Structures are given as structure tokens and as C-alpha cells.
């Protein structure tokens, strides 16, 4: 039986992290033949499409557009099609049908049963995994983190049944100067006093690249897509990139930071604050903070009005209807609350804004593949 070649995929969400990852891998690992894709809901801000266009110029490759519903099958865009299917019921944090229908299903259809390495832009200063496909032919890799491996791989490598193999590989692959220490760590079983996360960090602290080589060898004979590879250049990766690095990559490359991330100063009752959008994706994303809805109202009034139109059937994007949020007194209060939060923080307001509105891009539907 012929084994299918492994595909290397990177999803562009329109956000800063996935865009920076595409640039980073293009510059640092040009040997990887990466396919780029974007799952289009039809409800993105124009800045998202500008970013994708800029990326295509830098990468020298097209970003494949995926759609949940083709124009041949429906005269409406994908989101509006499924709003009708769900009887006007809007997605929410407790019923994220948009993520499943508009993002995950088109992606998995695009992949099919091909073995895939999926590169995900979760940073080293983030404590989350994001979307991990349960399909056995898709393996996620996190190049921005010191630990490039997904949770399921780490569990497999550090479980009790793998202890002997882990120790033997450390004996085989380590150099003489470090062998005693790393072998001792490798053969120490997990316990209440030595958790999986503690063991992982200890092995990474000892030698990240050695840990990567050991994991790669332990995957041989498994069904993971990397098991088919003779080599993998990211084994040499021990970078740990944080938010500031992401903005630096975008700016220095010339691709640029999407305009909706740029902070805008507002004033209320003689006090100043700042707001910006914290995520890519649909302009009406229900994960937005209320100050972001105010940003949308004031900076993209046409999009706010379109979002308001969806609430005409009685469903709302959050517990507070947009018709109430848009009232002058309510906007004033939301701004004052935001200023108060910024002033309470010891960090500068701009940094704090990004903390309270952190771009959990993989939380929202457009960011399942950043």
C-alpha cells in the first residue's frame, strides 16, 4: 500500500499570531513546503483581507480560501446560510455552531484523510492548547513555544508505559557531559510530587533540542504523521516567542499589523482611555468585550448596524442587546469602566488593554487555526 505524502498546513485567521507564524516559518524554515489556508465566513473586516493579501506577497504563495457553503450551493455567504438553517439562532459561547460549521468542518474536508502537520501560532506566553483535531491523521505543532508538542504527544511520551523507552533514548542520544542528569530525569516516574508538567519542564530546561529528538524517535511506529518523516527541522527549535516578538515580526517584514489592533484614544468626562480590537474574525464575534463593541460602533458603524440587524429575531450576541449598548449613557459607562480598569493596573494602559482584551484567537471561531 502506498503511503500518502505528509502535508504541512498553516491556517491564517486574519490575526497577528497566525500571520507572524507564517512569516517566521517562511524565514526560518524555508525547506518546509507549507500550504496556507483561510476559512472565510464572509463576515470579516476589510483589514483581514488586506493582511492576507500582504502575506501572499511576502510568502510568494496563495492562501487557499475555504468556505463552508459554496456560492453554487447558496446565494448567501456561509454565515447567513447557517443562520437560516438554525432558525435565526445566533452562535454564543455555549452554542458555538459557527466554529463547527464555518471553521472545523471546512478544514477537515480540506484535509480529508491525508496525513497532516498543522502549525499553530500559540505563543510562549500563553497557557492554552487551542483547537486540537481529534482526527488521527492531523498532528499539531507549536513553533512559537519552547514545547512544540501537543498535550496528547507529551502524555504518550511521559506515561508510565513509556518510561523504559524514554530512559533508553536519553542514554542513546545524550552526550556524555549531560547523560547522568537527563537519564535520571527521564527514568523518574510521575508522582504527586513530580507531575507531568514538572517533568516536562525539567526535561526542557535540561536540553530542549534533545527532548525534541527523543520525542521524535518515540513517535516512530505510531500513527502520528511525523512518524512517516525521516527528519523534521523543527526539532532544532528552542525559541519561545511572546507578544512583543509577534508585533516585531509583522512590522519588520513589511506585512504590517492589522489596523484593528492599533490602539485609539478616546475621552470621556475629561479622562482618556484606549481601545482597539483584540481578535481577528467576524466583526460581531460574541467573545468581544463590551468596549470592543463600542469600538465597532464608533469605528465601523456600518458593521455594528449589520450586527444589530441579526438581533431582530429576538436572539442577541450577548446578555445585553446591542440596542441597549449603543445608547449614549451606556457607552459612556463602558468607557469609564475601561478607564478605571486601566488606571488600576500597574502596567501602562496600552499593555493592560491587551491583557484584559487578550486576543484568545483560538477561542473564537475564526481563530481555531491561528
Explained architecture:
There is one protein chain. This protein is of the alpha/beta class and 370 residues long. The chain has three domains: 7-149 and 236-253, HUPs (Rossmann fold); 154-235, no CATH class; 261-358, no CATH class. It contains 15 helices and seven strands. It has helices at 16-28, 46-59, 78-85, 97-111, 151-158, 163-173, 176-187, 196-206, 208-218, 243-253, 290-299, 301-309, 322-325, 328-344, 349-356; strands spanning 7-11, 34-39, 63-66, 116-119, 138-141, 264-268, 271-275. The protein has a five-stranded parallel sheet. Strands 6-7 form a two-stranded antiparallel ribbon. Helix 1 (16-28) runs parallel beside helix 2 (46-59) and helix 14 (328-344) packs across helix 15 (349-356). The model is unreliable at 348-370 (pLDDT under 50).
Amino acid at each position: 500500500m502506498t503511503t500518502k505524502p505528509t502535508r504541512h498546513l498553516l491556517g491564517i485567521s486574519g490575526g497577528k499570531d497566525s500571520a507572524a507564524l507564517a512569516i517566521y516559518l517562511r524565514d526560518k524554515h524555508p525547506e518546509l513546503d507549507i500550504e496556507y489556508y483561510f476559512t472565510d465566513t464572509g463576515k470579516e473586516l476589510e483589514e483581514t483581507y488586506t493582511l492576507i493579501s500582504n502575506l501572499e506577497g511576502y510568502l510568494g504563495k496563495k492562501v487557499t480560501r475555504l468556505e463552508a457553503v459554496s456560492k453554487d450551493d447558496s446565494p448567501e455567504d456561509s454565515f447567513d446560510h447557517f443562520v437560516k438553517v438554525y432558525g435565526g439562532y445566533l452562535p454564543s459561547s455555549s452554542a458555538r455552531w459557527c466554529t463547527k460549521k464555518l471553521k472545523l468542518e471546512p478544514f477537515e474536508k480540506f484535509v480529508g484523510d491525508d496525513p497532516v502537520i498543522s502549525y499553530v501560532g500559540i505563543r510562549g506566553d500563553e497557557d492554552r492548547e487551542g483547537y486540537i483535531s481529534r482526527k488521527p491523521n492531523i498532528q499539531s505543532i507549536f513553533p512559537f513555544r519552547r514545547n512544540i508538542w501537543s498535550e496528547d504527544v507529551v502524555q504518550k511520551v511521559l506515561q508510565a508505559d513509556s518510561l523504559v523507552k524514554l530512559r533508553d533514548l536519553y542514554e542513546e542520544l545524550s552526550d556524555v557531559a549531560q547523560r547522568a542528569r537527563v537519564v535520571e530525569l527521564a527514568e523518574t516516574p510521575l508522582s504527586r510530587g513530580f507531575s507531568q508538567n514538572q517533568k516536562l519542564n525539567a526535561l526542557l530546561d535540561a536540553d530542549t533540542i534533545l527532548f525534541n529528538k527523543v520525542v521524535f524517535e518515540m513517535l516512530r511506529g505510531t500513527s502520528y504523521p511525523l512518524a512517516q518523516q525521516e527528519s523534521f527541522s523543527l526539532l532544532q527549535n528552542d525559541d519561545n516567542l511572546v507578544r512583543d516578538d509577534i508585533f516585531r515580526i509583522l512590522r519588520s517584514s513589511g506585512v504590517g499589523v492589522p489596523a484593528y489592533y492599533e490602539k485609539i484614544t478616546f475621552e470621556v468626562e475629561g479622562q482618556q482611555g484606549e481601545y482597539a480590537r483584540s481578535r481577528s474574525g467576524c466583526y460581531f464575534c460574541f467573545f468581544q468585550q463590551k468596549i470592543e463593541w463600542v469600538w465597532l460602533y464608533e469605528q465601523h458603524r456600518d458593521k455594528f448596524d449589520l450586527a444589530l440587524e441579526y438581533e431582530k429575531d429576538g436572539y442577541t450576541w450577548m446578555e445585553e442587546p446591542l440596542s441597549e449598548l449603543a445608547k449614549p449613557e451606556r457607552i459612556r459607562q463602558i468607557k469609564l469602566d475601561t478607564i478605571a480598569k486601566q488606571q488600576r493596573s500597574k502596567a501602562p494602559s496600552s499593555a493592560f488593554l491587551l491583557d484584559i482584551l487578550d486576543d484568545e484567537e483560538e477561542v473564537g471561531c475564526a481563530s481555531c487555526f491561528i
